[in-house]
Amino acid sequence: MGHLFKKGFFFVLEDFLRHTKDRGLKEIGYFPNKPFTLNYECPTVNFSVILSGKGFYEVNGITYRVEAPCVLVQLPGQKYHYGPEAGQNWEEMYFIYDQRQLSRLFDNAWLDPKIAVRKINNRYSVSDAIIELKKAAETTRPCDIIEQLSERVILETLMPAPVNEDDELVAKLRDIALSLKTNHQHTVMFEKIADDLNISYSTFRRIWYELFGTSPKNYQKKHRLTEAARLLLSSNLSVHRVGQRLGFDDPAYFSRIFRNYVGCSPSEYRRRQAWVVGPEYQNNNKIMHCEQETEIQRDNLLLEEA
Predict the structure, then answer these.
(1) What is the pTM of this model?
(2) What is the three-class DSSP state of 196?
(3) What is the residue range of 248's domain?
(4) Which helix (H) or strand (E) holds 207?
(5) Sign of CA dihedral 228, 229, 232, 235
(6) Coiled-coil regions in this chain (predicted)?
(7) Residue closest to 288 by CA, chosen among 34, 30, 98, 23
(8) Which residue of 74, 103, 130, 303 has the lowest C-beta tally within 10 Å?
């Protein structure tokens, strides 16, 4: 299974006002290929969601083995040294909370002082939640929404494994479905995938429907059109370019199926749905990408090459 996103990003929330109560989330970030280790005394409450890769996690001199998918929990005042195996990378999504949230997080059973490394039993649900979170951040939704979606990611890491999650065929279909949510341009030949899996297309379609509640082709169409709606609101791309980016080379066809899905044409949707959030409640109008991810620095933090 590939990485969720090609580029890393981070998003700082602590300096922006909320419509609702501040829940203490200071920053979120994502590394598709984190190559370095960290060595520091933690001043905050952190959750590091390791989505792929292996490594180590040393807490106050005690070393734990790390193998994705899992969550590393960091508490204020504790000393941590962790990262991927030497010469390797891992994929990580992190959440940093103000230490004043410690009691609330313990009360919510998000934290257990006896557990430093927590296994993730439903990585597909966690990945879905991260994808939704990133899309919200990219469309400059209010910080309140970003906080709620971030908490959904953490909650998903606490949930038990779904039925049949360990079934090899189910796992492969979930990998395909996850890929369709992040790679919208190319048309997938589901019949060929079924053949590669040594099952008939009717069997493939039946199992897919049981898992996702719709046919494979409708699933792909839905996520393409959802992404089209997002791009219409969050970019200055022309309707034609939005369609092309999502694999619809025929503008008339794109407009027709978008109308069938949403109830109006792409141009009309852009005009109707345009909305403005006051700048004091927005993020900084962009999600910050870090091409050279090792350049991110923190106070009292030592970055070491793995």
Answers:
(1) 0.65
(2) helix
(3) 169-263
(4) helix 201-212
(5) negative
(6) none
(7) 30
(8) 103
